[in-house]
Amino acid sequence: MISDDENVGVQPHVGTAALPERGLLLDIQRRMLEIRFFEDEVMRLFMLNLVRGSTHLCQGQEAVSVGTCSALREGDTMTCTYRGHGAVLAMGAPLDRTMAEILGKAEGLCGGKGGSMHLTDLSVGALGSFAIVGAHLPFATGAALSAQHLGTGAVSVAFFGDGTTNIGAFHEALNLAAIWKLPVIFVCENNLYGEYSPLASTTPVERLADRASSYAMTAERVDGNDVLAVRNAVAAAAARARDGKGPTMLEALTYRQKGHSRTDAGAYRPPGELDEWLARDPIARFERLLTEAGVVTSADLAELRERTEALVREATERALAWSEPDAGRRLEDVFA
Amino acid sequence: MSELTFREGVTRALAEELERDERVLVLGEDVGAAGGVFQATAGLFDRFGPRRVRDTPISEQAIVGCALGASVTGLRPVAEIMFADFAGVCFDQIANQLAKYRYMTGGQASVPVTIRMANGGGVGFAAQHSQAVENWFLNVPGLKICVPGTPADAYGLLKAAIRDDNPVLVFEHKRLYPERGPVPDGDGVVELGRAAIVRTGSDVTVVATQLMRHRALAAAEVLAGDGIDIEIIDPRTLVPLDLETIVGSVTKTGRLVCVQECPPGGSWGATVVASVVEQAWESLDVPPRLVSGDESPIPYAGSLEDEWLPSVDRIVGELRDVASA
């Protein structure tokens, strides 16, 4: 989460006049860069065989994670999918311990028991990355039920992919959240592909936000590569949720610049599609906005890039230097 | 001490825990205004209101997942899955989410969720509403499993489950809901992982739970007339399992029979036999035996289901056989 007391309110428009203050804008940019460099590092380490199993990268989708989490406040909670490195970092999980978890180190967020697909940091409200499609949506309603029951005013965010809208848990969770008016924000990251299959081959509706209408739920489609548009939509949804008006579904249109997982080169993509989306890269786009609005100079941005890249590199080096967990630890944490 | 039905034992445990701890809430299909299809939550809605006793849609995944999320964020939910067989609908939520959350997060949170489920056969509900579903979860570390056989255990184990900081599955046998028995007034919590010695005897150790515990006891009374002295142990919880009490008994009798209302493959009885063979092989005078349901789905017609479930007569025969071997 990025602290920002004044700017949590609704921002109806992303014109320069409505821009949040400079510090926040730079924080947003730094977070997106952190995620981008982090994912590039994970990819590099994967190629060196230092990451076990599989891993699912989110380059290109940074604006959804950062835009959403920047609109949250202390005490709010977030759950996400196995493509969740970005979301967990956007909540403020430390770079080094996040990388250490992916590397299976004892200092990792989960002591090396979860790995890439299960990054969790309760201390920042990142309640879990879930590797079964849709399984966390019911969980998110539970976190919202606690908030409602205990009167904490917290909202519960669940990130999920377009493919999730075809699994039963999605429908059960939206229905429950709607009838109990739970403070949940369901954020669909529509990156156009469920694993290797294009959306149209698996899903009869093109506009996934429409699915919320079955649950009489407010829904909105936003440009998921426009970080401020995402932030504004989430801020509005959070305000409604805190006001007792129940859940919202947001559909953020975005694109997965890499394949589904390491073995996937994305051969199913039509020619030219990737290039079109690279031209809409959320980070480059936000940089243009910041320079055009005169918030920063390109020298400032270059400096930020360099500093952030160094931070990620240093965090990775720390994580690499840490040890794997002691084998005896495997029997711990089964029960409380 | 009060004389209560098994069902009333459940209701009293829920009422007392709702009263004792604001964080406890009950959720499930028809558990509120209707009082539950088995009436195990009768009166709770009126007493504690719709915020604490929540009717849900027919959405087992949402029920279990919501309970899990709520438990990690400060509540102690007691979810009801109407028939245990419906665990099939939310198997992912129980086996992949609930059981593993604490472990996968490196112990960042505890998961105080109780799931109550109506279990077992002998009531004519056919193949999808009669199974001994506790067996499905034996291979899923991270879950505690209660199988109460008396009103006192239904009451005391449920209270222990709700107070436990881990996911606990509590299986309530449908056929036992109307059975009466003494229930202690006041605290009566039954510690998880402690077997009950239901009957002491010297010739054969019988391990049985729920409905089969009662049938084994009836069989033991028949055999007592023939001078065969049966010891009956009800483990009461399958995870954790009080193997020490079972092994101690087998060391005395030299004979082990597990009576269960499920097919033998992958069953709790098979687990008990394997553990006893490992730990007390020299104590066994004859091969251990499983008395089980058939390797078929549970049939509907009375003549078929009666034959499928181990009956008192069949248990008598098997025990006589083992005792004389």
Give a written overview of the molecule.
- The complex is a heterodimer of chains A (336) and B (325).
- Chain A is α/β, with parallel strands linked by helices and 336 residues long.
- Chain A has ten helices and eight strands.
- Chain A is 40% helix and 12% strand.
- In chain A, strands 2-1-3-4-8-7 form a six-stranded parallel sheet, sandwiched between helices. A two-stranded antiparallel sheet of chain A has the order 5-6.
- In chain A, helix 2 runs parallel beside helix 7.
- The longest helix of chain A is centred in the first third of the chain and has 26 residues.
- Chain A is globular, with a radius of gyration of 19 Å.
- The two termini of chain A are 29 Å apart.
- By secondary structure, chain B is an alpha/beta fold.
- Helices cover 36% and strands 19% of the residues of chain B.
- Chain B is built from eleven helices and 14 strands.
- Chain B has a seven-stranded mixed sheet, with helices on both faces.
- In chain B, helix 1 runs parallel beside helix 6 and helix 3 runs parallel beside helix 4.
- The relative contact order of chain B is 0.12.
- The mean pLDDT of chain B is 98.
- Classes of the chains: A alpha/beta (336), B alpha/beta (325).
